[in-house]
Each structure stands twice: as structure tokens, then as C-alpha cells.
TrEMBL record:
InterPro entries: Rv3268. It comes from the Bacteria. This is TIGR03089 family protein.
Amino acid sequence: MPDPLLPLLPGPQDADRPWLICYGIDERVELTGHVLSMWLAKTAGFVTSESAPGDGVHVALPPHWRTVAWACGTWLAGRSVLLGSSEEIRTAGLVPELSVAFTPESLCEEAEAQVLVPSASLALRWPGELPALVLDGAADLMHYPDHFTPVSAAGDLTCLSDLTAEMAVPADPGAPAGTVPSGDGPTILTRAQLVARVEAAGASTGADKASASRAVLVRSPDTAQMLQEVLVAWRTGRTAVVLTPEAGDDVAAAAVRQEGITEWVGGPQSH
């Protein structure tokens, strides 16, 4: 059975239109599908070269274009994304193959390898001196090729584990893909379940209407929700405009105005 997640990700052939735009304070970064696919390829190459499959790639990053690149690059490599604090991961008894973060304090010590990523959108390397044995998630990434042969994974392979205990527990094994049961606890989604969620959300957006916005504002403080909303935008052929957590209402309003956005989740008057 073909991997259901790979078709949602940008590839080298997606050259013309922007797929991802990220707004921060005094920052705007635009990535076409082609450019984004190169970042995903480099990330996938990094992940496969620096680690063996384990309990997941710990992505301790807030909503940001780099977060999208690391998560989607992990999926391109056939691996799973692990969200949560180092304490939550330790409590769950998990050992990530990689831990990726903006700050040393957010790294998981138990991970096979640790990676620090600069939060500045255009930075080409980690600012300052790296801790011992920690890799540079910008400079070291640039050594990897712009192309990566995707690892086609089975639909029942786990692709996202969110240990923040704010979402639902895993679906019952006999439930249809994408079923979201009630209850507190971590979210564990297979590739098929994540795609089912994305397709269901996309079907309810009205993106097929002539009046549909070409871009969608993604403003969520939750990384898992942000990733899903980005995939929904891509699934419906639209640009995902991501706001970083520090971006205020003035930045949101500017993004809406500049990108011609008429639809968004968590719009400029929220938060």
C-alpha cells in the first residue's frame, strides 16, 4: 500500500508558488515548494545519517518554518515526530534518536544525538558556541544534498506522538483511521490517521469555492495543531502562512493584509 503521507509533502517539481510563509517579529520568510523540498531533503538526509530509528525524532520547537521543515523532513525519512518536554519523554520511557531544539534547556539528554537550531529565520548557523557533542541544525544541515529518495512507509506506522497530554488518547485499534476518541492523554497517530484528519479538515474548509483564499493563516501556539493546519493548507492547494508565537496581533493583521488572507484559524483578534 502506498505511503499516504508522502503525497502531501512538497517535492522538487513544486517550483512556482509559495507553499510556506513564516511571519515573526520583523521577519517574513517565503519558501516555494521547490525550495521547501530542498530543506526537507537536507533534513531527511541529516536524520538518516546522524541516527538509527528509535522512538522518534524529538522536535522541541514552537510554530516556525524550521519546525515544519524538521517535522516534514523526518516524515520524508520514514521516521516519527515526537513532541513533548524532555521530562514527559523521560516519564514515558522513550529514547529519541534525535532531539532538536532552539535552546539547550529543551534538548532531551537521553537522545542518541542532539541538535540546536537557530530561531532567527535567516540564520545560517547556531549563534555562539555549541555545547559539547551538540550538532548545528543549520550549518551542519547544509552539507546534505538537496534531493532525497523518500522512504515509503506503511500507513499504519506511527508518525506523530504528542506527549503534551492535552489531546486525545490513541484511537481504538478497531476504529477507522482518523478516529479521535475522547479522553486526556498523549496523541499517537499513524501516517494514515494523520492524513485522514487532514483530509477531513480540508473537506470542511470550502477550499473548492471560487471565493476561497489562496493562503491560510496558521496561528496556533501548539506545534501539533500547527503542523496539521499546514498540511491542510497544502492538501487544499493553498499557502500556509505560519505565525511564530511571539508575533502579536499587529503582525497577524499585517500578514492577513499582505497575503490577501480571508480564512484563518486563530485570527488576528485571538490570543
